[in-house]
Amino acid sequence: MEAEDLLEPQVGPTPEGFPHFHPYHHPAAGWGAAKAVTKFLLREGELLDGPRAMFKMNHEDGGFDCPGCAWPDDMKGLKLDICENGTKHVMWEMTHKRATPELFARHTVSEMYEWSDFKLEDQGRLTHPMVYDPDTDHYVPISWHDAFELIGKTIRGLESPHQASYYTSGRLGNEATFLYQLMIRELGTNNMPDCSNMCHEASGRALQAALGTGKGTVDLKDWEATDALFIMGVNAASNAPRMLTSLVEAYHRGAQIVHINPFIEAGATRALIPHDILDMATFHSTPVSTLNLQVRVGGDMALIRGMAKAVLEQAKTDPRALDREFIERHTHGFEEYRKVCEATEWSDIEQQSGLSRADILKAARIYTDADRSIFSWCLGVTQHEHGVSTIREIVNILLLRGNLGREGAGPSPVRGHSNVQGNRTCGIDNHPPEQFLERMDEACGITSPREFGLDTIGTLQAMNRGDVKVFVGMGGNFALAVPDSAFSYEAIRNCELTVQVSTKLNRSHVVHGKQALILPCLGRTEKDHQRQGVQATSVEDSMSMVHLSVGMKRPASKHLLSEPAIVSGIARAALPTSATPWEWYIEDYDRIRDTMSRALDGFEDFNRRVRLPLGFRIKQPARELVFYTKTGKAEFSAAPLPDVIPEAGMLALGTMRSHDQWNTTIYSDDDRYRGIKNLRTLVFMNADDMRERGISEFDPVNIVSTARDGSHRYLEDYLAIPYDMPKGCAAGYMPEMNVLCALCDYSTESDQPIMKHVKVHITPAT
Predict the structure, then answer these.
(1) In this predicted model, what pLDDT tens digit does every residue of 541-572 receive, in sequence order?
(2) Cα separation of 286 and 362, whole Å?
(3) What are the φ/ψ torsions at residue 91 (nearest 5 degrees)?
(4) Apex CA 282: angle with CA 280 and CA 283, to 5°?
């Protein structure tokens, strides 16, 4: 395939003004965040209404859950625990701008396809259900009844239920999630791709294999009690900004904080927390790290293996280095793991991690000196071929010192979206366990299919083959989030019908099937009026806390439906004789929760417990040292150390978000914490790598990725930016760089796309 066949028009916003790069040395959050939020509110015309609405929603009874990250609410009831990105995310949803039928009448879909992603979303909130008219290349209004009938008729006309695939985004609340998976299984398939397939699938599989649970075991109280925090592959200031509060508190009480990342991010240096009024008034920031280790891209497992090797070597003379009683009583496979660690040479550990033995020993000493330790990680660890092995290696080192089942210790994955974890808990799983299906069937009176379904990669491959003809996207921006943009766009266009349930116009509406529907839904900030009154939905955060969220704003349009109501409408149209009381459920969401309490383990007495002041925590057996593994114990793993060093002349490139971005939503072309202004089409490089290639700052470069199958993908005229990062590594922004990530390059351990270890050649543009 030729280069021009692989390229799609660039969908990022065009920079306004000359690009600017200046290293950022100010603390995370603080006045920089306040200034950025003010600038954002001025641009959106929300300077007065925005803060007032945020304050009201955070103080009303019933609670409000920010649709941004999944970091837990403060356990002590802090009402001002809000952040820059959360504020932007809420205001982006609450905008006064509207994408009305008149907008669609003025512009063809082909014209809107050429718009930047910023411009698409900047049109404002969707107001009416719309259907694509291929004769005019316009979206035109359609009634809800006719939209549901089109979906139902198309689904009923499929030769097999497996010819449809149903995507879920983390913005979906638990009640809508439960109804959605119930509908899908009643239709007869487990084709349920979701955003976890691209983000934390590795975490779930690793923790399930090691501990018998797909979730972390710690909560915020543990973060408040731990002696050492190891933060891996996380840009806290941008991706989980409220984590900064926990890091500042940890530093003040003397805990050690180790950040492990190819970049030293702003959130790994100093922070100034906005609700610390005195610190804000005196411009007093707090360190949020005691050690920064710049591991090479993909080298995290080698680092942890080195730390474990050091712990075992220390144990030969220091009996306190290992918790031998814990290992003997609660674990399986220790001796095999010990032998693997001893057989791994220090020279290999140094080479693969990109760190010196001395630096690794510093981290190991921090770990052995701490009585209680937490390891926390995000996509910098998961989006690799060996993501599962790396997370199991994290569990290994925790087990060595008994850092499980006690306060202040354990694994703590950071979910990047508000209800990704809740989606999986409430049934979105293309590979469901039999125990879950049995309980579902008994509670709901259906017979769920037992055949495993398609995940994200499988769905795109099946679309390309013509095996998936209907795609329903419940939130999110599927087309822009997935890898291999050129291939994926064509796969989506191959569908007979695509349905997008959305709040704003995005790339997935202009990359669509032969028939296409846009179904506008309520946002989380809006009141959800149903027959029995205003309804609340529930969400689950990164630490398994479940609580209610109630919107307080008037809906953006009288034509919007809630996500549960949309699911109900689709279900009744596709399953006209279904005995499931779809319409009855929508009248009062307590009825959905009553069924969930019978169907879902840990949701017993749901309606009462979710109304407790901070909600409730789903029971976590591994936290109590109960392991649902084959041996009934926590399992050590003994995976070989992977080779992560790219071939000669190549670099390992990782995709990432900018600071002024939330997943695929881009607020501006700036990346304040990395010193970037007016630029997204860039690549960060090590200065030595640039010199070797004859590249200077802001030089245009061409980037060519090489997939496992030998095929190539291309980006042209990106600007090179020197950055403090390990030699042999590079980085750039998603979604622009998703075109470089081949769909065939997915992890054999997790089936996740390999977005953080793309092998590339970078050369000066001619």
Answers:
(1) 999 999 999 999 999 999 999 999 999 999 99
(2) 22
(3) -65, -35
(4) 60
